[in-house]
Amino acid sequence: MSIVINFPIQKKALDIHEIYCYIEIVSHKVLKMKRTFLSLIICLAFASVAIAAEGTFTKDPTCPGGLYLYGPAEGFSANLYYSDDFGETLQIVVADTYMTGGIIGDPVPGYLISHYGSIQLSRDYGVSWEWMGATQYTISAGRYPGEIYTFDYVSSDFVIKYSTDYGGGWLHHYPVGLPENSMTHCVGNYEGEFYCLDVEEGGLYRSIDFADNFSFISTLPASGSGQGTRISKGAVLGELYFHEGYAGDLFFSSDTGRTFEWTHNFPDTNSSYMANQMQAGTQTGEVFILKKRTYWEGGGEIFIYYSDNYGYDFSEFHSFSTTVWLPYINLTPLDTLSFPASGGILEYNIEARVLGPIAYMGDIWCDVTLPNGGIFGPVLGPVEDLYMGTYWSANRDRELAIPANAPPGSYTLNAYIGEYDTMNPIIDYEDHLEFTKAGNGTDNTDLLFIDAGESFAQEHQSTSTLPEKLNLTAYPNPFNQTTDLSYKLQDASIVNLSIYDISGKRVADLVNSWRDAGNHEVILDATGLVSGIYFVKLQAGSDHSISKIVLIK
């Protein structure tokens, strides 16, 4: 099994000895363009500590373009994935793995180190694991096989721990100059430089002798003890980023943390999301923010924000989703689904929704399946290029006129959302409503189903830059003897404007000739018609519109 992922950014080899990576694989970012999905994978390389979290990945140092990663799978499980092409395609190494923490690649081929409550070593590319020892904290890789770093508390003393045998044995550094029992985050093991963060007092401490001695550098510009408080070293010596927990403020320093400048804010705007991880990239000015959605109904969401100007501006990538956030459409009957030989009106509600945090653009349309299996329509739409924002929803009450000459049998009203095409439509979601008709009607060329009611046009106009089409209206409505029918043409075309009764029979032709672009008006005189419901059908080139009118005498 493989997951194919586009990789639009430049591919380049990374030095495993300088990789302390965290994050995840990818799915879809839906932009404001029709059915366009942007998919990519972001590989972050740092001179800093890895984040122990689901989805952590690491470079395979034995294969250019290779990487391993833990990624969410269906339900609440996780898979270990491998890619040999920079993440363009992913293959499952181990499905439903119990190893869901951080992962580090080792220079020895096939060796991987995982850490989440314990340190585990794999010598066979992640297929099997060997317990090496317990750990409560995150681990960063060294420069040589088996070399790893972490921090811990020993008899209430804060220590920096160093191992050269994959965590089998440890050397302890008892740093001088740090407050007791208040460290939450440390980064380092690069040219002897270490940083430690004291969230209780908001202090930043730095060592230049491999964590033996620390000096107080500054009081951070904000404090926060929640998950998400992070420091990360930049690509250039002396550059440092600070991300303040749940508040989401990002700061940058170019002078080893002595002064910081605010650059951006990622507020926690939704309780199911958390701006909980930040890391600097490999190039000057690069910084990444991770927003991770907690598992809910078997779904995990990951967003990565990327900046190449120290966090002043960001691009958003929806990097992974175990839930397929496709749009949803639903048909609900409002009255009877059984009709006599004379036909009638099928009253129904159509609802369209985007269930998740991904915007969508597509088409909505309905057609009717006849008793002989043929398709009539579309009877609604297609409403084309309808932009639906995150958690968007709309519903409309509609009426489908069942003509008297329709043959008896079972029918189906079909609703679709996707990309309309007369020959090969792309359907992302669909719903169906069955109804029956009695009588002795015949399936002939005069058969006409007319669908009218509340329109998606207003929703469409408020969210789309496409021009308004036809805009067929009747005033007054209901009416007694006459009503003014008005419409607007974007382009000159042949126009047909007809009136149909509730049985689908055409009772009047008002226009059937060439009309120029612009606004037009026609007066309907209903002298010869009886009281009741009628439908106005306007056809102009490939565009059409139907409106319901009510005659009261």
From TrEMBL:
<dbReference type="InterPro" id="IPR015943">
    <property type="entry name" value="WD40/YVTN_repeat-like_dom_sf"/>
</dbReference>
<protein>
    <recommendedName>
        <fullName>Secretion system C-terminal sorting domain-containing protein</fullName>
    </recommendedName>
</protein>
<dbReference type="InterPro" id="IPR026444">
    <property type="entry name" value="Secre_tail"/>
</dbReference>
<feature type="domain" description="Secretion system C-terminal sorting">
    <location>
        <begin position="475"/>
        <end position="550"/>
    </location>
</feature>
<feature type="transmembrane region" description="Helical">
    <location>
        <begin position="37"/>
        <end position="57"/>
    </location>
</feature>
<keyword id="KW-0812">Transmembrane</keyword>
<keyword id="KW-1133">Transmembrane helix</keyword>
<keyword id="KW-0472">Membrane</keyword>
<dbReference type="Pfam" id="PF18962">
    <property type="entry name" value="Por_Secre_tail"/>
</dbReference>
